[in-house]
Design brief:
- With 337 residues, the protein is mainly alpha-helical.
- It contains 17 helices and no strands.
- The chain is globular.
- The two termini are 33 Å apart.
């Protein structure tokens, strides 16, 4: 800025022919430019998805009984159509402690924002009884009318195969113990079904991005399919991980932290190592403990130290705690983290 003003002063004769309004406009544009650069440099490129994801992960390790408060702050960064599943998590938090009235409030919010009422009816009947059941049923019927039949039929076909191969229901029962040949056959069938699952996921991502319940009218367990496809180290897994990154940038998939979970899970299952211990708190698998936090912050996770404190896990050898970046959790009241 100083250099710019100096150069401007040395060339002031150039601007003598300009009208006063033009000079003011020139300075306004320059000021706005520097201001925008300053803001971009100091905001760490945070998006609404980042703010949601970071606060969501903070809520899950909080030890000060602020889960619902932090979750509400996290959800505030999401568009309405993405909020349902996370309001349901707050409802489940209250339901598990038998605070059914509070649970009913958040289950109602979940359905209003697009969540499958049938799940709540089946799994949380005590809380459901405290909801406006007539109104909830009308909302559920509204969502049913939006069902994309082509997508629904394709999903049911693929998820049925995806689950059947994993509970051994595809092959007839045998009176003998599982043989080597039977296991090889199951593995071959599983790999072929997972190839079909990959093509289904690709079709969904290309046509619907990462669909919400409100968008398609039914509950899609895409995450189970994503877990199965990304377990391998191949082109299909790479494609899904890359696509989820693209969907995160566009806002369709708000949980960037889950991408690191998938990467660490894949690495752990294949090599018993990981980058940052994002998979099931297997901290001893981390290759470079001194880099763990910087990697975790890139993917919106909390520090290894805060997570280990929540789950009472021992920190890995060589771990070097790193402070959170400035404004990491977006809201001023969490700036002390």
């Amino acid at each position: 800025m100083i250099r710019f003003l100096s150069e401007l002063s040395s060339r002031k004769h150039i601007y003598k022919i300009a009208e006063p309004d033009s000079i003011q406009l020139f300075f306004m544009k320059k000021t706005l430019l520097y201001l925008s650069l300053f803001i971009a440099t100091n905001s760490h490129g945070q998006s609404n998805c980042d703010c949601f994801d970071r606060l969501y992960n903070l809520a899950n390790v909080d030890t000060n009984h602020r889960y619902a408060e932090i979750m509400n702050d996290a959800i505030s960064f999401l568009p309405k159509e993405q909020r349902g599943a996370f309001y349901r998590k707050i409802g489940s938090h209250y339901n598990s402690s038998k605070n059914y009235d509070s649970a009913a409030i958040y289950y109602t919010k979940a359905v209003e924002c697009g969540y499958d009422l049938d799940v709540i009816v089946r799994t949380e009947p005590q809380s459901y009884m405290r909801m406006d059941t007539s109104r909830m049923k009308k909302l559920a019927e509204t969502y049913r009318q939006r069902i994309d039949i082509e997508l629904y039929n394709a999903y049911i076909g693929q998820i049925t195969l995806d689950q059947a191969v994993r509970n051994n229901s595809l092959l007839p029962d045998s009176n003998e113990d599982t043989t080597y040949c039977r296991q090889r056959l199951l593995t071959s069938i599983e790999q072929n079904i997972d190839k079909g699952t990959f093509h289904f996921l690709k079709w969904v991502f290309d046509n619907y991005q990462y669909p919400t319940f409100e968008q398609v009218g039914f509950d899609m367990n895409l995450w189970a399919m994503v877990l199965h496809v990304t377990a391998y180290e191949n082109h299909d897994a790479d494609y899904v991980l890359k696509k989820l990154t693209e969907l995160n940038k566009s806002g369709s998939f708000p949980e960037r932290s889950q991408i690191l979970f998938l990467k660490d899970r894949q690495e752990y299952q294949n090599h018993r190592t990981s980058e940052a211990g994002a998979f099931c708190q297997y901290y001893n698998s981390i290759r470079y403990g001194n880099k763990a936090d910087s990697i975790r912050y890139e993917y919106n996770l909390v520090s290894l130290k805060d997570e280990a404190n929540k789950y009472r896990k021992a920190l890995p050898a060589g771990y070097s705690p790193q402070p959170y970046p400035q404004n990491y959790f977006c809201l001023k009241k969490y700036s002390g983290k």
